[in-house]
Amino acid sequence: MHPSCNRFLAGVALIACAWLGMPNSAHAVPAFARQTGMNCNSCHIGTDSVPNFTHAGRMFAMRGYSRPYVRERMRNESSFGQDSQYGGEYLSLNWDDFFSMRFISELVQDGHNNDGSSRDATTRPLSRAAMFFTGQINEWLGIWTEMGYLGNNSVNSVTTGNTGPTGVNFYAYDEFRLSASFDLDPKGFFGPGSFWGMSLGNEHPNSVGQFNFPIALPDMWYNGQGGTGRSKDIGTLSLHGLFFGKLWLQVAGVSGGDNVNLSDGSNQYFNVAYNLIGRQRNDLWIIGEIYRGNDFPSIMTPQKSSFICPGACPPGVTDSSLSFTNSAGFTSQTILNAPIEEVDDFFSYKLSVQQAVADRGPHTWYAAATLHSMKQDFVSGAEVERTVLGGTLRYFYKRTYGIELYLRDNLTYEYTTPAGLKRDTYSKAFYGTTLLWYPSMNFSVHLTYSPVGQNTVFKDQRNLYQGDGDSYGLGFEFNL
């Protein structure tokens, strides 16, 4: 039997033993559960590897994590003016209710490279750890912050015969969002459940309404924040609101696709979403998003950032452990041998439908589908257009035993040269699955498998296509 098969079977046996040997009931106590008095299942349909949201969870995020809130507060009324309800000093007690941590352990990761060669099997008992200090500041202001120990972003040795992690890892801030939210008069024109708000952060603006998830859906926008290690910092300022209790409107300015420089261009984001049902146990959103501007990297090529070599490294010098390569989007797909192009302007849209159904008897699920397209015009006169269709389903039985499936494929991915020559690309559909087990709301075990590992090539270079890759991973996640 192939060594990779032995390792895979060993991993399956290990997860089976864990499944049988661990308790089947417990309660989670992460920061938001402590602050709101609700359990984790009130807001989420699973959290591993990223959360999917119930109606209550999405409303909580949209309101900037400021409502609902049940923990005690101390407030000294203002001594300025006649109306003492404004100003004053606010202090939220029990500061530890705002502190959470997330630990991710990958017991084994293995698979094959795109050319079919075997990868090295690895184990990372502490793959990633993140610290959160997040919650309500006062009645209308809330904050989300994440700082992480990025074990998957270690500085590696390139010494012959001794390659791999050196024990030196990057520790960094990851996500930040300061949000204000103000209720509208429930007896007014917009009716109950309506509010407007603003936010300042370093993530793509669709994170304000948590429309950046599920993570497996087609995405060419996200700048990398989220705890996976390699990311680019951006600045976003958003104005948004929920009207008539169902209509979400948002407009935002973005410093760039992968930078905080306002002098070299900027981008604009628009979102119109409508909640068709809007119930805690059945939440159905129809979402339309537009992202456009003149500051975004080419989707065809990865962006390398070296710490020591401004250009190509000189002979005898390598920056393999002192550089990182980033591509925009959760589901980026760079093209082998694509020319280096500078974006002049771009236009992109997403059309999505997302449904969260919670606790219908023993059944809970989150289903979503997205059509996503981006067209980039280059300074050279060339252009590229990519359109992707994808869907995902996360299902739980008794909120304990789950499975997640995803599928996405390019409908078009075509580069037009400055001379007008059209070059189509070749790749196959991406799909995969994750088995999930939650013995506790704040502890989960995952077994991931993706049978597709491939590169993307121009059709006129199809002989360079490699599609014999696959991967699997067994691990767990713990939140406190």
Key traits:
mainly beta, globular, Porin, 23 strands, disordered N terminus, 16-stranded antiparallel β-barrel, two-stranded antiparallel ribbon, 48% strand, 480 residues
Description:
- This protein is mainly beta and 480 residues long.
- The chain has one domain: Porin.
- Helix content is 8%, strand content 48%.
- It is built from 4 helices and 23 strands.
- A hairpin with a 5-residue loop joins strand 18 (401-416) and strand 19.
- The longest helix has 19 residues, at 3-21.
- Residues 1-29 have low confidence and may be disordered.
List the helices and strands and how they pair.
Elements: H1 3-21, H2 31-36, H3 40-43, H4 55-62, E1 73-76, E2 89-92, E3 99-112, E4 122-133, E5 135-136, E6 141-157, E7 164-183, E8 195-201, E9 236-243, E10 247-254, E11 267-275, E12 282-293, E13 303-306, E14 323-326, E15 343-360, E16 363-378, E17 383-397, E18 401-416, E19 422-426, E20 430-440, E21 443-453, E22 457-458, E23 469-479
Antiparallel strand pairs: 1-2, 3-4, 3-23, 4-6, 5-6, 6-7, 7-8, 8-9, 9-10, 10-11, 11-12, 12-15, 13-14, 15-16, 16-17, 17-18, 18-19, 18-20, 19-22, 20-21, 21-23
Give the number of helices.
Answer: 4
DSSP, total strands: 23
User: Under the CATH scheme, which architecture would be assigned?
Assistant: Beta Barrel
CATH superfamily: Porin
Low-confidence stretches: 1-29
End-to-end separation: 41 Å
User: CATH topology, which one?
Assistant: Porin
Shape: globular
Strand order of the largest sheet: 3-4-6-7-8-9-10-11-12-15-16-17-18-20-21-23
Radius of gyration equals: 23 Å
Q: CATH first level: which class?
A: Mainly Beta
Helix content range: under 10%
Major beta sheet summary: 16 strands, antiparallel, barrel
Specify the structural class: mainly beta
What sequence of helices (H) and strands (E) makes up the elements?
Answer: HHHHEEEEEEEEEEEEEEEEEEEEEEE
Overall pLDDT: 87
